[in-house]
Amino acid sequence: MKSILARLRNWKNNDISRSLESTILLATGIVLLYLSITSLINRYLLPSFRPWIGLCGVLLIAFGLWNIFSQKYQEQPEKNHVAHGSSRIALLLFIPIASLSLFLPSALDAFMLNYISRPALLSTNNTAKIKITYPPLEKNVANEIDLEELFERLNYDEQNDLSGKIIRLKGFVGPLPAGVDGSWSINRFKLSCCAADAVGYIAFVKGAPALMANTWVELEATVETGKKEEVPILRARKVTVIPTPKEPYL
């Protein structure tokens, strides 16, 4: 009788362990697949990672389903003990899964501007700035560029082709640093891999009404090139509020 009860107890522990492992695999796979399908993964990683995250989600779901329907249960007491102990460790995976389910973090925004570095000016042998040649901008037309290109044109372009030109760029509204003349700043982050290695690009905006922080806008402006500044200063011509893009990073 004792032998039968022991075998039933071992079977129960093994069954709970197997069910827990399957649930964790399925939950993780579903979260990853959801982030990939909805493009929400772009808040944290470069878009090029999106299909691979989706593939990982599909594989985890497949492993979870295989684990559920598989009948190869281990019955040895020693192996059952190991499986049961490992299942307790695996239970910790529910913490990040539950966190993502209850609160999905937003993309990097104005709150992070003071905590993320800005691009430093590059130099050769610490004496002269590196020069880059960009194609000239068109006159009397809004030229579509981004904040990274604006920064490099202002600081590295040999032609210095910004004077009197109209540019159009997108970004989110942020506050101005103390002591800076202007209305607000337009900002955008660039990722090399993920949000942890982000670099922030910023330009100061003049001549436009104040907007709420983190509002995404399309800005048409001219660049003030009288002073050689690392941070571009823009004179606004037209400001259009736009939805948050699916790919918020450069």
Question: Could you walk me through the main structural features you see in this protein, from its secondary elements to its overall organization?
Answer:
- The chain is of the alpha+beta class and 250 residues long.
- It contains five helices and eight strands.
- A five-stranded mixed beta barrel has the order 4-5-6-8-7. Strands 1-2 form a two-stranded antiparallel ribbon.
- α1 packs across α4 (94-102).
Helicity range: 25-40%
Number of domains: 2
Number of helices: 5
CATH topology of the largest domain: OB fold (Dihydrolipoamide Acetyltransferase, E2P)
Order of helices and strands: HHHHEEEHEEEEE
From the helix content, strand content and strand pairing, which structural class follows? alpha+beta
The averaged pLDDT comes out at: 79
Shape: elongated
**Level-2 CATH architecture of the largest domain:** Beta Barrel
Q: Which sequence of strands runs across the widest sheet?
A: 4-5-6-8-7
Largest sheet: 5 strands, mixed, barrel
What is the radius of gyration computed over CA atoms, rounded to a whole number of angstroms? Answer: 27 Å
Number of strands: 8
The percentage of residues in β strands lies in 15-25%
Kindly, what is the distance between the CA atoms of the first and last residues, rounded to a whole number of angstroms? 68 Å
Poorly predicted tracts of residues: 1-9, 74-83, 123-127
Please report the first level of CATH classification, the CATH class of the largest domain.
Mainly Beta
